[in-house]
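=== RUN LOG ===
request id: a7f3
mode: sequence -> structure
chains: 1
length: 84
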Amino acid sequence: MTNWETDRRDIGECLSSWERQYGWSEEDAALELRLTKQTYRRIKIEQHLVGEGWLRRMMCLIDKVGPEDVSEDVERWLNAHACS
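=== RESULT ===
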């Protein structure tokens, strides 16, 4: 399992590898991360995000828990930490 938090590649490369790992399309990966497809693509194209640590951490958590099981846990966490 890749540790996305310590991976030195840019975030766009990491996201592409993550998609391949699960056989996902960009839309599938965006949905798993609770991002719009447009936002997800912009992150991949710009390949640099100020404060991308949250995204790398989410990728690691999904890898550990599994994409099918993480949905409710991620949703609960996001709701608990949502900005108003």
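=== NOTES ===
The CA atoms of residues 18 and 59 lie 8 Å apart.
The chain is about 65% helix and 0% strand.
=== END ===
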